[in-house]
Design a protein that fits this description.
The protein has helices at about 50-60, 60-65, 70-80, 90-105, 115-125, 135-140, 150-165, 170-180, 225-230, 240-245, 260-270, 325-340, 360, 375-385, 430-435, 445-455; strands spanning about 5-15, 25-30, 35-45, 85-90, 115, 205-210, 215-220, 250-255, 285-295, 300-305, 315-320, 400-405, 410-415, 420-425, 460-465. The chain is an alpha+beta fold and about 475 residues long. It folds into 4 domains: about 5-180, Ribonuclease H-like superfamily/Ribonuclease H (Nucleotidyltransferase, domain 5), CATH 3.30.420.10; about 205-270, 3-Layer(aba) Sandwich (GIY-YIG endonuclease); about 285-390, no CATH class; about 400-465, no CATH class. The chain has a 5-stranded mixed sheet, with helices on both faces. Helix 5 crosses helix 8 (about 170-180). The radius of gyration is 31 Å and the shape is flat. It starts with a strand and ends in an 8-residue tail after the last strand.
């Protein structure tokens, strides 16, 4: 290794979020090329209150840091000390992420080569199950001078380093170090070769935590680059920091293009319910407004559910909404924006016969409720207001295959009917199997509808009618 010095470092903080939480203590052991070690530590005034739980864990109270220097005051000298050093920490992404953000706030760019001692331990002792600091203390007979204080924990890492150098063959220790330092920085629970085979092609990636718990599903036209971006940004984004800390395994599935990746991502999120995906999680029964005439000849918006109505073929549908409350809120907003009458829309009762609606009294209705506006004009304005929410009817006679190809050898057929995604085929046999298993009325999904309607509008895919397909011999 060609480093001027090694710095074993540990931080204490007010919490786990490198963006919103603050550093309360820094401790480090600086080792020069000759092996001489110098220690340095300082309490840090975080300029915010330390939570009671953190005070109990670290022993650092608000009173202790009240007269301590702020990070901004320590930053110039600390920044100089870290230059040219190999940054060594336990679960290094945590400490490195906090320091990068703190230096950034102080106006000092900071970047360093980083070595995580959790990953070092995993690489050297792959048969061991635990690699937290308490486990390493016991396994390697380290001598703690207190725990959960920055300098004491940094000194434990220096002890570990010395013990490994003494007890392991030099070529083994050096080989593992070289391997870890040459690879992209990965979360501590991932194997060092976890991303080696991920292609930089379109597809979907799946993050799993402990006990194969689904954490996150994402998609990209460049899988490898997108996966690595999660790890490169984890010092900035709390979500990526949490993912890095929880991540144990990565899967991926290639697709022929972006549309296939979008469809597969939406399907997997609803099937697996990953804890870090929220926008595309499975929703309840979708609803939409349908314009229909009542007994008096008025055109009213009536709320209808996807389970009660064939959203793919019904006309005059407007939405989509995941709940009745969201549907009603959207209609009220349109009424206010376009001065529509809530009484005429059936969303407000009259105070009495021939009494105006409440909005008329506020000059926010054009008066259809009191005969000041013709009902046909009001109906035309309602349809214009709803136009942007119009749900397109399925434009084909039945099932179709949407053909997406990256090249001649990488082609997929996305089987779709009535705006519903039934699966993807890579061969005629796959295609027949999907058609054979297709439900008579597949469930309508808002995310799939948006993906498909956008792709068809842009004419991104070739269309193959499938209603006349016959089973292969």
């Amino acid at each position: 290794m060609d480093f001027q010095k090694l710095i074993f470092i540990d931080l204490e903080t007010t919490g786990a979020n490198p963006v919103s939480d603050r550093i309360t203590e820094i401790g480090l052991v600086e080792v020069d090329a000759s092996g001489k070690a110098v220690t340095w530590s300082s309490l840090v005034n975080p300029e915010v209150s330390i939570p009671a739980f953190i005070q109990g864990l670290t022993g650092i109270s608000n009173a202790m840091v009240q007269g301590a220097p702020t990070f901004a005051q320590l930053a110039p000298a600390l920044h100089e000390r870290l230059q040219g050093a190999l940054f060594i920490a336990h679960n290094a992404r945590f400490d490195y992420g906090f320091l990068r953000n703190a230096f950034s706030e102080a106006g000092l760019p900071f970047r360093s080569d980083v070595l995580c001692t959790v990953k070092l331990s995993r690489a050297l002792f792959p048969l061991e199950k635990k690699h937290n600091l308490d486990a390493l203390i016991t396994r390697h007979d380290l001598q703690p001078d207190g725990r959960h204080r920055a300098l004491a924990d940094a000194d434990l890492l220096w002890q570990l380093w010395q013990k490994l150098q003494r007890t392991l063959p030099e070529n083994q220790f050096q080989s593992v170090l070289n391997s870890l330092l040459q690879r992209p920085s990965l979360p501590s629970h991932l194997a060092s070769d976890a991303i080696d085979k991920i292609p930089d092609t379109p597809g979907v990636y799946l993050f799993y935590g402990e006990n194969n718990e689904p954490l996150y599903v994402g998609k990209s036209v460049r899988l490898r680059q997108r996966v690595l971006s999660h790890f490169n940004a984890d010092h900035k984004l709390y979500k990526d920091m949490r993912l890095s800390q929880q991540l144990h395994r990565i899967e991926w599935r290639q697709t022929a293009g972006e549309i296939g990746a979008l469809l597969l991502e939406a399907q997997l999120i609803k099937d697996l319910q990953p804890i870090h995906n929220r926008k595309l999680r499975r929703q309840g029964d979708l609803c939409a407004w349908r314009l229909q005439e009542d007994a008096r000849g008025r055109t009213l918006p009536v709320l209808t559910l996807a389970s009660e109505q064939d959203f793919g073929h019904a006309d005059r549908l407007y939405g989509l909404f995941s709940t009745k409350r969201k549907a009603e809120s959207a209609l009220r907003e349109l009424a206010e924006l376009h001065q529509l009458c809530l009484v005429e829309l059936g969303m407000e009762g009259r105070a009495g016969v021939n009494k105006p609606c409440f909005a008329w009294q506020l000059h926010q209705c054009k008066g259809v409720c009191v005969g000041k506006e013709d009902a046909s004009f009001h109906r035309a304005r309602l349809e214009a207001a709803l136009a942007k929410l119009h749900i397109k009817t399925w434009p084909y006679a039945g099932m179709v295959g949407l053909i997406e190809a990256r090249d001649e050898d990488d082609m997929e057929v996305h089987v779709v009917n009535n705006w519903c995604y039934l699966g993807t085929a890579r061969s005629e046999a796959d295609l027949w199997s999907l058609l054979e298993q297709a439900p008579a009325r597949p469930s309508f999904d808002i995310d799939t509808y948006k993906i498909l309607s956008r792709a068809l509008a842009r004419k991104q895919l070739r269309i193959r009618p499938l209603q006349a397909i016959t089973q292969p011999e």
